[in-house]
Design a protein that fits this description.
Shape: elongated
Number of domains: 2
Order of helices and strands: HHHEHEHEHEHHHHHHHHH
Number of strands: 4
Number of helices: 15
Helix content: 55-70%
Distance between the termini: 38 Å
Strand order of the largest sheet: 2-1-3-4
């Protein structure tokens, strides 16, 4: 029974077209290079380079106190490698000049009365100079300094009275606050979007350039068979890319996988249809591969910027947060992070999955209709 159903399929025109497309893709070394090498390199570069963590900030110190306590404070600042002691400045204007000239990011001036005030039970003051040109780095550096000063104060001065409120903080899902765990799932969606749209558009535009698309029109195959035969091999190859990206995330960045593998692959398959649809739409409005590539950057860059892959959507202005609701990549990245890091299921993610399914259906239907009209 099963054999009688399968045999006509393998003898059909659709299977012959699919085999033709698959052989053509496997012979195209440039396409295989585009599928494997750039996504891997992009994941590695983005995973290591995109980091909000601030380390090894250059620190200049002017210690006018010269006491053991002030030296302990300087040692506490450089102990966790957030700050590197670059210079110990003696002139009164040496620290501010070092910050002004860009030699250091942080300057610290410890006054002469620092040790005396601490012994008298008074609150000692120090002067901190921050290079505010890079506002993000300056803010993080100030937070680090505040934390170190608070810890140092508790060490050198006993607490006489208990605090009225005790704060116990616990970081969930990313206890080590590793930035790669935030960026890598987003970059996986970014890479899938770029590769899927470029590969599908290149495959169709190449048919136009070489004239083989007109030859396909002369065959007895229907337009839906021609288009589906092009989509199926792409779909299979892009699923391989998803697995490759996932392997890089797990083995290189120690990314946890706490959710369902089948749910992850199902959601990724949905977004593959979205990426292929974008590529088909690009191919219908492009006359050559150069035009398709340039147009893809015009479309894909806004999708990436509004997706939350690099910067959280919550940090965007309200207008762009609303605009991002029209971005299918936002929903895929949200699902990616939720499945990988939090291990949530479809009962939580169904609104995002539903939105992704609507985007996939509408975009695929629209781009396929436009392609069929061009074939006609």
């Amino acid at each position: 029974m099963i054999k009688s159903l399968i045999k006509p399929f393998f003898a059909s025109r659709f299977w012959a077209l699919t085999q033709k497309e698959l052989r053509q893709m496997l012979r195209d070394k440039q396409l295989l290079f585009l599928l494997i090498f750039p996504p891997t390199v992009q994941l590695l570069i983005f995973g290591f380079a995109l980091s909000p963590d601030v380390e090894h900030l250059r620190l200049a110190v002017q210690d006018l106190s010269g006491s053991p306590t002030s030296r302990e404070l300087v040692a506490a600042l450089v102990q966790n490698h957030v700050f590197d002691l670059t210079a110990v400045s003696q002139p009164s204007n040496g620290v501010s000049a070092a910050v002004r000239d860009g030699k250091v990011e942080v300057g610290l001036i410890i006054p002469p009365e620092f040790n005396r005030e601490l012994k008298q039970g008074k609150q000692a003051h120090v002067q901190v100079l921050l290079d505010g040109v890079d506002a993000n780095t300056a803010g993080i550096a100030l937070a680090y300094l505040s934390q170190i000063f608070n810890s140092f104060g508790l060490l050198i001065k006993p607490v006489l009275h208990a605090l009225p409120v005790a704060l116990n903080a616990t970081y969930l899902y990313n206890p080590g606050l590793l930035s790669a765990w935030f960026f890598v799932p987003g970059v996986m969606g970014l890479v899938l979007n770029l590769t899927g749209s470029l590969m599908s558009s290149s495959a169709l535009v190449r048919e136009k350039d070489s004239g083989t698309l007109e030859q396909l029109l002369m065959t007895p195959s229907a337009s839906w068979e021609i288009l589906t035969a092009k989509i199926v091999p792409l779909f299979a190859l892009l699923n391989v890319e998803v697995l490759l990206s996932l392997a890089v995330g797990i083995f290189v960045f120690a990314l946890p996988f706490r959710g369902s593998f089948l749910l992850f692959m199902a959601i990724s398959s949905l977004y593959i249809f979205v990426a292929i649809s974008i590529g088909i739409a690009l191919a219908t409005i492009s006359h050559n591969q150069r035009q398709a590539i340039l147009t893809s950057f015009f479309i894909n860059l806004p999708l990436i910027q509004l997706s939350g892959a690099v910067a959280p959507v919550a940090s965007m202005p309200a207008f762009f947060q609303w605009l991002s609701l029209l971005n299918p990549l936002r929903y895929y990245i949200t699902c990616n992070r939720a499945v990988l890091l939090k291990g949530v299921g479809l009962d939580v993610l169904w609104p995002n999955v539903l939105a992704l399914a609507v985007f996939a259906f509408v975009l695929l239907l629209g781009s396929a209709s436009q392609f069929r009209r061009q074939l006609g």
